[in-house]
């Protein structure tokens, strides 16, 4: 299933209830999810609006209090219709349940748990982009090295059919999205603002393209502005939706470290691209590798192998003809021979430290291999 | 003890015997070492010269056959006297027995074992340079990045009193030696040729300086030319003499990989400096880190900590004032406030999703911290 129209099988009332609930508390809000799971969306919305919930759910009152009286559901759903967005709820067939499960687990739920619903825009479904996917993240103030590697790696992943997930930001994120799009592949931007917002504004055109060919996801209702705490909250979704996270470039302090921490917390393989130790924008990635928190990832193949170690054979290393295949004695005889001119067998024996019969034997096989020539009375190297 | 003259307490005959033995077989030659250990140097030299050894030592005959009749001991010792070199034997007080022990162990002895003796030049003793020492090795065709990092790291090690051991080659080796010398520190060049040779010739001046201020070591007798198999043999000494090995830069195929393999084989900690994944001269180091063979090393401190993890506290990371110390609610209130202008408490409550009393509480502590100002009737951020 794909398309920009809302394909949820929910009734209008149900959808309105979900839209209200998706806005009434700042995500993440585990108590609200618990309420919806107990009562269903319609009853949960009523209870929150009336400030009257079952006693075991009273924790939901505080985080919903500030917005309970403001029902923007109709307006938000109209906005979605207008811009071709949809609301994917926990009841939706396309809800990425397996991927987001880790966020609802006890340990991480303390930090808020998973999203209640996801606003989505773009032709791809969640199922199409989460199966084989990698998040490429990193500094907004990326170096040209970081931009280049991010774009190349994203292109390699996209060509292999993998989806590239990132945060739509300047720098590494943008280069990753662009690399995937340029390769004609799948990319997903997870925003820290409303689905109708172009943030950052300089990425309006990029986000339009992702909306037309990829997928934009956010747990923030239309109109929500980007804010620092929302970036941190958004990062957990990037980590959870992807099968693994690669930090391409990160300085000593970087938001990417937060996404990396989320990956580790919820058990997603974490990779990092190394960089020059003289580069400020690689201090973070080098440090993650040095600490053992991340695996060093040099290219798209290594990135895929991080997530699917058995599914991706590494290419055989390029081999060139060399003296590694020679026996120790053959090699010592070769090394004893000068670049120009020839030597007698006795001279070779002395220089190489191999006795005469060993030298003769080695010279015989080296001659057969076309590496030495004894036809001039002395032995010499064959050029070329 | 230090000085360029021969300070061995051996008799002249003993020294001559050692010098003969040190030349009669191409190192490494474990059977010859076993013979010397059984018979002593003088009797061992006689036995080899006469081609008559105890039956359990008959393995020594083949590797000594080619050179047995050529006794260059007097000539070699005269050369040493002339250039201020000395022969350090296994009987010498300065023999680095502990460091070289690993090379005589069963597993590695199969590959030849340790050296029989070491030709040495320079004011430093082995004891002075092996206690706290690191080998910095890498490509001859180093990039300017590799040269820079090698020099910086060597300088840092030298300043901390550590000896920098390397192979005297172009590229990384040379930069490491120079970095240590420039910092007024200790450096050791382990050669793959005779102690009287300047190899590579372009490093004649550098080797002279090391000979005057550091230490040059080799198991090859005066006059021996450098050859490929000798570089490989020499590499095991670099690894053994150092407390750890750092590969600064290495391409896909590099001699440094051989030194790295030796480090692993004999249990020396192995580090590697990462580099751009777009750099051909960092393919080898990045790959060692990715495979888990080497630890990522970004600077001299990390290099020392690799060898002495408890002896070197990492410097506390630079801290700057930021919003990380704020509570979740405080941060959300801060983020709700616009860069210019102010908001009412109700507006902040809606935008942040925190109810009014929570907003007021957060604003109170933020005002005390000097981060927000409510004196104008609305709440706004404090600049600066």
Automatic annotation (TrEMBL), chains A, B:
Gene3D superfamilies: 3.40.50.450, Winged helix-like DNA-binding domain superfamily/Winged helix DNA-binding domain. InterPro entries: ArsR-like_HTH, DprA, DprA_WH, DrpA_SLOG, WH-like_DNA-bd_sf. Residues 319-377 form the DprA winged helix domain. It comes from the Bacteria. Pfam families: DNA_processg_A, WHD_DprA. One of its GO terms (biological process) is DNA-mediated transformation. Residues 87-304 form the Smf/DprA SLOG domain. Belongs to the DprA/Smf family. PANTHER family: PROTEIN SMF. This is Uncharacterized protein. It comes from Gordonia phthalatica.
């Amino acid at each position: 299933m794909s398309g920009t129209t809302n394909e949820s099988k929910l009734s209008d009332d149900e959808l309105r209830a979900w839209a209200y609930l998706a806005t009434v508390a700042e995500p993440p809000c585990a108590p609200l999810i618990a309420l919806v799971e107990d009562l269903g969306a319609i009853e949960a919305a009523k209870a929150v609006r009336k400030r009257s919930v079952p006693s075991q759910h009273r924790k939901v009152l505080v985080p919903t209090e500030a917005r309970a009286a403001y029902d923007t559901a109709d307006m938000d759903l109209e906005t979605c219709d207008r811009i071709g967005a949809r609301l994917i709820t926990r009841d939706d067939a396309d809800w990425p349940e397996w991927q987001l499960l880790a966020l609802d687990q006890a340990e991480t739920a303390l930090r808020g748990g998973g999203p209640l619903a996801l606003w989505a825009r773009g032709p791809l479904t969640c199922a199409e982009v989460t199966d084989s996917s990698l998040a490429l993240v990193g500094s907004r103030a990326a170096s040209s090295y970081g931009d280049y590697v991010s774009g190349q790696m994203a292109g390699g992943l996209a060509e292999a059919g993998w989806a590239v997930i990132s945060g739509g930001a300047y720098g590494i994120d943008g280069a990753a999205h662009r690399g995937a799009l340029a390769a004609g592949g799948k990319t997903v931007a997870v925003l820290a603002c409303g689905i109708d917002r172009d943030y950052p504004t300089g990425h309006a055109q990029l986000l339009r393209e992702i909306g037309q060919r990829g997928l934009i996801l956010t747990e923030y209702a239309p109109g929500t502005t980007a804010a620092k705490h929302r970036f941190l909250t958004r990062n957990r979704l990037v980590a959870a939706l992807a099968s693994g996270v690669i930090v391409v470039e990160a300085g000593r302090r970087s938001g990417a470290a937060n996404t990396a921490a989320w990956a580790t917390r919820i058990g997603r393989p974490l990779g990092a691209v190394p960089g020059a130790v003289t580069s400020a924008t690689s201090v973070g990635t080098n440090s993650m590798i040095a600490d053992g928190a991340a695996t060093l990832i040099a290219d798209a193949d290594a990135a895929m192998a991080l997530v699917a170690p058995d599914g991706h054979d590494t290419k055989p290393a390029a081999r060139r003809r060399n003296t590694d295949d020679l026996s120790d004695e053959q090699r010592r005889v070769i090394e004893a021979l000068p670049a120009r001119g020839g030597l007698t067998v006795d001279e070779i024996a002395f220089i190489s430290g191999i006795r005469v019969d060993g030298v003769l034997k080695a010279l015989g096989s080296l001659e057969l291999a076309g590496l030495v020539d004894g036809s001039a009375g002395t032995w010499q190297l064959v050029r070329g």
